[in-house]
Amino acid sequence: SNSAKWRFLITYGICTVFGLTMYILVLVWNTHFRGGFAWTSDIMLMMNWHPVLLILGLSVFYSQSILVFRLGRNFPKKILKLIHMSLNLIAFILSVIGLKAAFNMRTATGEQHLYSLHSWIGFLTVLFFAAQFAFGFVTYLYPGLPASIRAASMPVHRAGGKAIFLMGLVATATGLMTKASMVLPNYSEMSSEAYVVNFIALFLVVFSGLALYLVNAPAYRRIPLPND
Ligand code: ASC
To answer: Over the chain, what is the mean pLDDT?
Structure first.
């Protein structure tokens, strides 16, 4: 209906404002407070790519990928599926480069790999994401499995996709906490960097909650077009 359309667009607009503000804060944090970016020439500046690429992939691109069937409901389904796959592919590539930055940093400092709670959740998130992408691609896009299998897999694909989005949120939250306690020895004194880190997490939670609400609400689901 027309009112559902406007409720969707207004909520999507609010969601986007929270998401963009969150990501601007991520960029401000890693440039102004953390010294900007490099690759292997500076280990710590290489690590700044880690939050910047993973939040861009697992929150910004991933959210737009799951919302593409809501936002673009008047587009042909084939086009939406291609956009959905492309946004997920970009999100996945950004995530892998972001993981590589962390892996390179640990190797260069001689630290242990994959010991922290954050690294376990984060690694599993990207592993499940890879599996979800591969199964989704084969099942729904190319070669595409029989309609009965596609229909039976759809609830799993939808629930799995949302679970991975939530796992990404948990990975980011634990990562922000770990980083804050490492680089802010006087965290409790509430420096401006402490505010920036806390607000990243707060805006990310609101943004993710709104994105999940928009993807879950039955009123906003795409109705198949006659020529789908
Ligand atoms: C697809 C597609 C869907 C599902 C549906 C089975 O490939 O575009 O909407 O599978 O046909 O639920």
So the answer is: 97
Is residue 86's pLDDT more than 90?
yes
At 155-172, the pLDDT tens digits run: 999 999 999 999 999 999
pTM score = 0.97
Pocket test of ligand 1: the residue of 150, 153, 158, 223 to mutate, having most ligand atoms within 8 Å of its CB, is 150
Ligand 1 pocket at CB < 6 A: 77, 81, 140, 147, 150-151, 154
Q: What is the ipTM of this complex?
A: 0.87
- Using the mean position of ligand 1's atoms as its centre, give its distance from the Cα of residue 228 in Å: 10
Find out whether 165 and 66 touch, Cβ atoms under 8 Å: yes
Nearest residue (CA) to ligand 1, atom 5:
151
How far is the centre of ligand 1, averaged over its atoms, from the C-alpha of 78 (Å)?
A: 10
- Cβ proximity of 105 and 43 under 8 Å: yes
What contacts 133, CB < 8 A, 6 or more positions away? 88, 89, 92
What sign for the dihedral angle of Cα 195, 201, 202, 207?
Answer: positive
